[in-house]
# Entry
Amino acid sequence: MTQTKDQIALQLTEAGYIADEGLATALLLTSMLARPLLLEGEAGVGKTEVAKALARLENTDLIRLQCYEGLDRSDAIYEWNYQRQLLAIKAREGSGDSAETVEEAVFSEKYLLERPLLAAIRRDVPPVLLIDEIDRADEEFEAFLLEILSDFQVSIPELGTVQATSIPRVVLTSNGTRELSDALRRRCLYHFVDYPSPDRETRILLARVPGLDAALAVQIADLMGKLRKEDLVKVPGVAETIDWAAALLGLGAKNLKDNRELVFETLSCVLKTREDSARVSREVTDRLLGKVA
Amino acid sequence: MSGLRLESSADIGPVLRLRLAGFVHSLRDSGFKVGLAETRDASRLLCTQVIKRPDSLKAAFRSLFCGRLSDWQRFDEIFDAYWSGKGVKSGVKVSGTSTRKGMKTIREMIDASGRRQDTIVGDVERLPGEEDELSDDTPSGRREGASIAENLGQVDFRNLSDPDALKQAHDLAERLARAMRIRLTRRDRQKRSGKKLDLRRTIRRSIAHGGTPIDLVRKGPREKQLRLVILLDASGSMNNYTGVFTRFVHGLLDSFREAEAFLFHTRLVHVSSALSERDAGRALDRMGLMAQGVGGGTKIGAALADFNRWHAARVVHSRTCILILSDGYDTGAPEALGDEMARLRRRCRRIVWLNPLLGWQGYEPTAGGMAAALPYVDFFAPAHNLASLSALEPYLARL
# Structure
């Protein structure tokens, strides 16, 4: 089946994700070139959503590996089920089995705990593997992730090498809290996810907040675009916009300009630090609202 | 798997291949990390029917060749200059070099400026009397790790007036901070490699189950990582040093996983987010915007009070080292500064005060504010040249 980027963009829209320019191409390339896709961007611009939408689009599973500091092989690839192994050894104590037999039995598939990376390469249907916030993991982890992403095999000393039965579609996300290695960057396709344009944000709102009036969505997206240009400590992401739109809808607002008080009071949906709340005062809100069409 | 598989044997013809090679070459010249595999994939892409229109070709190449945000931002320009400048279809002029005529790549510019800097180092070397003045004050052993250009390392920042030399000092300060990181993390790693399972306690617990270790006991969580909180004085009296210190702080902030930076003059500004910008120049621009009023008087006491009141609870924990870069000239009351320092001292692990004036001959920390603060400072060191900054590393490593 040959796809074009427009088809992919359309399918993404059906899967609930409004793609920006270039993302459809990047996704097309991931399947053509079998390379992982590295998504970078500020928190809350919908990087994780890309993987979720891709899984829906491909009608396959999403396997997610959330990275954190100190993540290691046993949490990411596989681990032996020590408790069961010990119990099994105990149970066989009187049976007179030789040490080799016991060892063989204990280090078998049955006692292996799959972690996300191993699970992802052993599926029959290629899943979407999301490696979230790779920049939080240590540099060592990045190194063996590279090994898996290039060979798609895992060697388990006691069991032998596990070959991939299917090559997953890999999506990595990073918030840029740490510089990633050049090797990893080179291996991956790259896409920078920016804050959406007002037009795209309007479409996202309409897709994500059922029952939202189109005119209100335009106003909200417009105001958010202007708000992001203010000097804020924590610039609100798309998730915040969706929350806010849902809040305004729930409170029965039809037009932002007629509900100035409501707008100011619900800004807590999008401003998440003390400094930001202080900065966007009533006057600033009024000024921003004044510029909204 | 949807999409289409590519045949590896596809050929794009010699003309296009040369053009592509030239493009990859100019990307590399601009600092892109592009390997052979990428070039091969690009040539495979060129022969598919999927990417016919130039704009989708650009998008595809952008995804393929970019590795970071800075690449991403520059890519369009390089792409347009290369492909649109000559036109793909009219590929008459094929040679890779001819297309690069007129387009000065960033790498070339850097090389050029690097050559210029070499000659400037020569100039610095000839600055009269600097080395003698300082070699007396600097105890041996302090200079460990200063494998950077020694001549520049010893020159007091205030004596650097040549903009190029200053720029080089800035770069060195930043590199120094990054080098510290590499060494510091290496030490950290070695310490951390312990067993995960606490076997002794596991077996002790197993007695309750007749010797079967049901409850596995693991080693507790690691020690909290050292956090660095930097308070940088940006008042008028620090004018000569602010630039280079900011670069140093920018480098440090990037190296420590947990670090926060504040800037103070008459008030306190939280600048971590501005300094998290990877590009140093842009980070400084952003910080400059955030901290308007730089170069005025200093109210260290008031700034510290502000810090203790609003930020300390959030950013300071028991494994925090506070690094104050200031000359200690305070226009507020010394008692207020002393009180705030005492309050701060109770919260954190160490307070390091770096004072550029300490590198001057005959300086005694007797200025009202400095004298009041000194009892609460664990480590008081000079910071007037690169050598003294690098001397800080062994101390930070011990924390």
